[in-house]
Amino acid sequence: MYDTLIIGSGPAGMTAALYAARSNLKVGIIEQGAPGGQMNNTFEIENYPGYEHISGPELSMKMYEPLEKFQVENIYGIVQKIEVDGNVKRVITEDNSYESKTIILATGAKYRLLGAPGEEEYTSRGVSYCAVCDGAFFRNQDLLVVGGGDSAVEEAIYLTQFAKSVTIVHRRDELRAQKVIQDRAFANEKIKFIWDSVVKEIKGNDIKVSSVMVENVKTGELSEHEFGGVFIYVGMNPVTSMVADLAITDDAGWVLTDDKMQTSLSGIFAVGDVRQKDLRQITTAVGDGAIAGQGVYNYIVEHS
Ligand code: FAD
Ligand code: NAP
Asked: From atom 39 of ligand 1, which residue's Cα is the shortest distance away?
């Protein structure tokens, strides 16, 4: 029986584990991949206090290292379901089951699909959701980035080091991205914009992407543009399928908590991007994790 089981070892889960383990609790952290979560797909982080800039994988390792010192148990697994049996919580993975007094859900968010014809067919054949993973395969090509948020604009800038040109297509005439990121994109000679427009279809030659049909949402005008790759950054969806039966999310699937990171179910906490919140960042994930790590200690003291 664990004192707390944390699901997901992104920045929120790792910080929760650190705080809980420093309170001498028996802590397990279940992760399906490498520690770091979305940070592993981030080339450079420039807004984490204490570092002028640091790569995502490096910050991931810096957060992971202290967990070994405090004997957090790392468990590999894909969590499928969480069950509540009175004060006992059960975490079911594809081949195991674990019991704990408390759970901290830190499963984050996953990229949203665009839903355009050709997207699925050409995924990994010119359509990508990760510039850091795939950008180097597109040297000297004309690339399209879809979206107007921080991810789209930042990753478009990243892609300019490989690409001949990078075009950002956005459905409005104003970006959502932070001003400092926008300014950098506007100053980059390799970056062009198609405003007020959406992707209608991604076309290919059966082997890979060759062009994209774009529609201007104001005029209805359709145009075809040649691109060797399409990077899609149209937002994120919460990863909450394992709690679908527990009624702790809003209609869109984001987990609802109070300011102590407690859900409506006693002993079940949620932290980081998976929560319904305004600002999804590493700093806010880490803050949530600290509050929940301390919160499970208080919960266990109160319930023992
Ligand atoms: P995540 O980082 O999403 O981690 C969740 C973890 O849970 C993952 O490791 C996942 O494998 C695991 N998991 C999920 N489901 C299961 C399951 N069923 N079983 C087991 N494990 C599971 N923020 C910044 O502050 N600065 C930046 O520069 C920045 N750049 C970004 C660039 C990109 C391209 C993206 C996509 C995001 C960026 N962000 C940035 C946002 C930041 O990465 C997130 O806010 C942060 O990682 C959220 O942390 P988290 O721990 O809540 O979730
Ligand atoms: P986001 O902020 O939700 O932006 C999604 C973008 O895609 C928006 O511009 C949106 O348009 C557009 N969009 C949504 N659905 C679309 C559709 N069907 N067709 C065309 N366009 C569509 O998502 P994100 O950029 O992935 O960022 C996710 C979170 O991570 C945010 O909290 C962000 O701040 C954080 N993040 C931070 C950094 C950083 O701090 N450096 C970097 C990356 C990500 P509208 O603008 O019209 O809504």
From this structure: 281
Kindly indicate the confidence band of residue 256, based on its pLDDT and cuts at 50, 70 and 90. Answer: very high
CA 86 from centre of chain: 32
Task: Report whether pLDDT(274) > 90.
Answer: yes
Q: Is the CB of 235 under 6 A from ligand 2?
A: yes
Which amino acid would we find at residue 239? V
For CATH 3.50.50.60, list the domain ranges present in the chain: 2-110+236-302, 127-232
Coil, helix or strand for 287? helix
In this structure, which amino acid lies at residue 9? S
Ligand 1 residue neighbourhood (C-beta within 6 Å): 7-13, 30-33, 37-39, 41-42, 45, 47, 78-79, 106-109, 151, 155, 239, 242, 272-274, 280-283, 285
Per the listing, tokens 């029986």 go with: 1
Residue 220 DSSP symbol: -
Cα(224) to ligand 1 centroid in Å equals 34
Superfamily of domain 2-110+236-302: FAD/NAD(P)-binding domain (3.50.50.60)
- Helix, strand, coil shares of the chain, percent, nearest 5, are 30, 30, 40
* pLDDT band per the 50, 70, 90 thresholds, residue 132: confident
Question: pTM value?
Answer: 0.90
Letter string b/e over residues 189-205, b meaning 16 or more CB atoms within 10 A of that residue's CB: ebbebbbebbbbebbbe
Catalytic residue annotation? 130, 133-134
pLDDT band at 41 (very low <50, low <70, confident <90, very high): confident
Q: Evaluate whether the domain defined by 127-232 bears CATH number 3.40.50.10490.
A: no
Q: What is the largest CA-CA distance in the chain?
A: 66
Q: Which residues contact 210 (CB under 8 A, 6 or more apart)?
A: 126, 203, 204, 226, 227, 228
Beta carbons within 10 angstroms of residue 34's beta carbon:
13
